[in-house]
Amino acid sequence: MNVDIHDSWKTHLNEEFDKPYFEALAEFVKSEYKQHQCFPPGQLIFNAFEACPLDDLKVVIIGQDPYHNYNQANGLCFSVNDNVAHPPSLINIFKEIESDAGKPYPSSGNLERWATQGVFLLNATLTVRAHEAGSHQGKGWEIFTDAVIKTISDKKENVVFLLWGGFAKKKAKLIDGSKHHILQSGHPSPLSANRGYWFGNGHFSQTNKLLEANGLKGIDW
């Protein structure tokens, strides 16, 4: 597994790559990609780290694991490639942005445009076997991504963490709430959103207010 990440991340994560759990994880991922169809494509496994250098990071969104159907996953949580139908959670994210931030519903579900503005789109598990949700959970990815969240908390200040749903909310314990901003709500999936736990959370406008209050440019959602 080729760990191709921006130098700003490498400085802080290099020691993680040398730990036994990561070496075992790398072997597992190599084997899975050789024997099965897996997503995202190998060169995009660490895309979140390439698209959003640590130095530029202002906002963190945490997902669970990548989309597991063809041509969807591109290494950024909730994001799909251009010209791919928007999955239900992403549709609800864009609907909330429409009502909260007044932005028109976009044609593309590719969230690289957020990443280049400093939104770090991290899945807790970075790979998945085709059509088998959660198939790469519990193999070591969560240890790595927890270390990533902790690194952001330790090395940065005034980052806005958006924790959507029970799984993401558990990551709050890794974040120093005295120097960062944690916004929590239900998950944008239809199951949660239709019960009233997602729509109206105002996270996108709140994020920009928090960033601007700290002298940072808001995100063009």
Description:
By secondary structure, the chain is of the alpha/beta class. Helices cover about 40% and strands about 10% of the residues. It is built from 9 helices and 6 strands; from the N terminus they run H-H-E-H-E-H-H-E-E-H-E-H-E-H-H. The chain has helices at about 5-15, 20-35, 45-50, 90-100, 110-115, 140-155, 165-170, 190-195, 205-215; strands at about 40, 60-65, 120-125, 130, 160-165, 180-185. A 4-stranded parallel β-sheet has the order 3-2-5-6. A two-stranded antiparallel sheet has the order 1-4. The chain is globular.
Number of helices: 9
Low-pLDDT runs of 5+ residues are none
What's the overall geometry?
globular
The overall average pLDDT, rounded, is 96
The rounded Rg comes to 17 Å
Helical fraction? 25-40%
Ends apart, CA distance between termini: 32 Å
Strand content: 5-15%
- Supply the helix-strand structural class: alpha/beta
- N-to-C SSE series? HHEHEHHEEHEHEHH
> Strand count, sense and closure of the main sheet?
4 strands, parallel
Total number of beta strands: 6
**Order of neighbouring strands in the sheet with most strands:** 3-2-5-6
What descriptive keywords fit this protein?
38% helix; alpha/beta; 221 residues; 4-stranded parallel β-sheet; 11% strand
Give the helices and strands, then pairings.
Elements: H1 7-17, H2 20-35, E1 38-39, H3 47-51, E2 59-63, H4 88-101, H5 112-115, E3 119-123, E4 128-129, H6 141-155, E5 160-164, H7 165-169, E6 181-185, H8 190-193, H9 203-213
Parallel strand pairs: 2-3, 2-5, 5-6
Antiparallel strand pairs: 1-4
